[in-house]
Amino acid sequence: MTTKDTRRNPALKGLSNTPMVVAHRGFSGKAPENTMSAFTLALEAGVSMIELDVQISKDNHVVVIHDSTIDRTTYGEGKVSDLSLAELKKLDAGSWFDANYKDERIPTLVEALELIAPKALVNIELKSTRIIRKADTQIADATVAVVRKMNLLERVLFSSFNHKLMKYVKEHEPAAHTGVIFHPVLHFGRMPSALALPAGAEVFVCSKREVTRRRIADAAKHNIIIGVYGLENQQDIERMLSSGIQVLVSDYPDIIIQGLEQYQIHKAS
Ligand code: G3P
Ligand code: MG
User: Fold this and answer.
1) Residues 84-103: pLDDT tens digits?
2) Which entry of 78, 171, 212, 217 is 20 to 30 Å from 61 by CA?
3) What's the pTM?
């Protein structure tokens, strides 16, 4: 049985023939992840896209933070979903990384999009549990509503490890660009087409360890774009580019941009 390709959109502009550098959680190698400083540094470095993670506050605001709790990236404790936006905004979201960032606050998605979207594309990763619960559709609905209201559907790629949630997003907003992220345990051994097509997604995201020839061939056959995260050095870049991978995700986007230039110079000479 073949799976019907439900994708209706042309690929997100820029996610096609030319290599694209994506800053993972902003320039998270240099500034606290998912903060306005990390986004500003990534834009200054000249990235094409910034990846960020979203969670929902108790009072239904979409906020930019990776974990479901505030414990790791602030000095507070507890679940993001148990705190109001006002409570979240009081937290220092930068000192855990470096004392110089003590004034950093957890951004709202609106604040992040206002900063990033005029200059770069945005990959919004919806954090969610593995099955769809009410909380998951709530975050999807709230996030899509923000992007739609800001008229940024053409500048945003939604992604998630929860592929059912990506299917839900696509069904409720056919104009959304979506990507499925590979989880080595949940999706063990599966090919990009087996995961992206049922969700109606145009992008398949995996870590550098999960890139294989079979996956690359499968994605190419089904017109699925592969994005790879965890890239750190010239060797990684050369391996990706020589395999035809175009979307390069890194905590150190400056290294990737330089590496890309080197690779292109070397190839042209
Ligand atoms: O999109 C790739 C990557 O962001 C997924 O993992 O944990 O860094 O959000 P994580
Ligand atoms: Mg992420």
Assistant:
1) 999 999 999 999 999 999 99
2) 171
3) 0.95
